[in-house]
Amino acid sequence: MRPSTLLALSVPIHLALAITPITPALFLDLEEYSRIVDIAYCVGITGISEPFDCSSRCAEFPTFELVKTWHTGVLLSDSCGYIALSHPPAPKRIILSFRGTYSIANTFADLSTIPQKYEPYPGSPPDDQDSQTLHLDSRCTNCTVHAGFLRSWRNTRESILPVLKKAVADHPDYQVALVGHSLGGAVASLAALEFVSRGWQPLVTTFGEPRVGNAALSKYINDRFTDESSRTVPYDRPGRYRRVTHKSDPVPLLPPGEWGFAMHGSEIFIGKEALSPELEDIWLCEGDRDPQCIAGEEDEDGGESALWGTEWMKEKERQALLQRRSVDEGTEEDHVETEIMWGIPKRFRGWQLFWAHRDYFWRIGLCIPGGDPKNWFGGHPQPNEPGKPDL
């Protein structure tokens, strides 16, 4: 039985399925990071100013100190976000927050690129003066990466790396923490791989992260971030990488596997479609393709995604075929366009995919006070324990 069916039952999901719910501590941690990444959407619009002021949720983080914002351009391969210091009494962190895209159409366009070879930083020859200090204890054999994501990180690193290295040197007891939403999650993952090579041991949290590369790269990410010592019961943190996905969000399933892309592990799944999730709605996933998490929605297509992946790669040929048929049968042009659209699997259609991709604890991507206006008076989501009354 699928989790979507169990949501309609009175039996708590974690009891009816062999799943492990997250702890209240992890719930609060992820909820906070969803607000931290939401602030990144102010960069390039109303902006973020010192000490840490913006039109969104900055007031909720009074101990944050803005270090830098970056906006490398308007192309899909460019990047946007900010660096901030989190001072006590908040956890000591050097935070890098990577913004996603504003346009779901741009998301699909940018996901249509072909993969290219991935070499762990610094590669050969080294391109950094301090490359001798990097921890190159592992190579990524037969790894390929999404070319647009890699280009975006390369554009970003030139802007932020000098500032980040200084922050690490000035605050050696602060943890480097990366957070990204959507395409920003993919860029954060590539940045994190380099930071591991630098010995910084970052904590990574992504929301709606797309597939970054092939199965070999996914294994490489798993190997670099899996902390087996943390995989104990009760679970508190599933390691130093938390890849959060949400029911009905199609972006973690893109680009398609038929194009050579694969998901990596460390997944945490929000099984409730509507806002706001409670503790029992979120669980830890096993492996790269847990059928009780986002991969299960792809499996439910019954092969439709495979057909779609092949057809999209041959879109021009399909369009030509439909156009010829419209001439032969007298079909109107609008009908032709409709047929092309409905060749896309149902999970990629309609406004529901837009909201599913935005709804991670809050509606992410709105640079306005309190995020989504309907939640202005609702307060922060709380990790209500299964079987207990709401707080």
Features:
391 residues, alpha/beta, nine-stranded mixed beta sheet, two-stranded antiparallel ribbon, 33% helix, globular, disordered N terminus, disordered C terminus
Strand content: 15-25%
Mean pLDDT: 77
Which segments are poorly predicted (pLDDT under 50) over 5 or more consecutive residues?
1-11, 228-237, 302-314, 331-344, 386-391
What is the general shape?
A: globular
CA radius of gyration is 21 Å
Q: Helical element count? A: 12
The largest β sheet comes out as: 9 strands, mixed
Derived structural class: alpha/beta
Which oligomeric state applies? Answer: single chain
What would you say about this model in short?
The protein has 391 residues and is α/β, with parallel strands linked by helices. The chain has twelve helices and 15 strands. The strands form four sheets. It has a nine-stranded mixed sheet, with helices on both faces. Strands 2-3 form a two-stranded antiparallel ribbon.
Structural write-up:
With 391 residues, the protein is of the alpha/beta class. Helix content is 33%, strand content 16%. It contains 12 helices and 15 strands. The chain has a 9-stranded mixed beta sheet with strand order 1-13-12-11-10-9-6-5-4, sandwiched between helices. The protein has a two-stranded antiparallel sheet with strand order 2-3. A two-stranded antiparallel ribbon has the order 7-8. Strand 14 and strand 15 form a beta hairpin. Helix 5 crosses helix 6 and helix 10 packs antiparallel against helix 11. The longest helix is centred in the middle third of the chain and has 24 residues. The two termini are 30 Å apart.
